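Limitations

Structures in this collection are predictions, not experimental determinations, and the ligand pose is part of the prediction. Treat each record accordingly. The example that follows, with zinc ion as the small molecule, is included so readers can see exactly what is and is not provided: the inputs are given verbatim, and the output is the predicted complex.
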Amino acid sequence: MMGMWMAGLTGGDQDSRQQQQQAAMGMNVAELRTELREMRGQIGKLALMNQALWELLCQRLQLTDDDLAKIAQEIDLRDGTADGKMTESPVRCPQCGRISNSRHWKCLYCGLQFEKPAMG
Ligand SMILES: [Zn+2]
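Predicted complex:
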């Protein structure tokens, strides 16, 4: 099995393999570039609005960068991993058994408040 897999990877037919992968993803390189450019534009807008919101909050509520760092760390840890990102992981509700997102502190279906272990 492993041999077959390796043979497939190292075959001289790289171009058609790439085309197959692109076809499987439903996008070609030009489309991906366009999408990437659009996403960069969206991230730029989001970063601007994020900064504007933060500066507005600082002015109006006398918050500091330390306050922001503190809450960011707390939110980061909700998914059980301190990785500087808000990783979304599925959490099964112990009460109704349905799947919610770790981003939320409670079950979206029955409203049960999750304890920290349920988030990990
Ligand atoms: Zn529930």
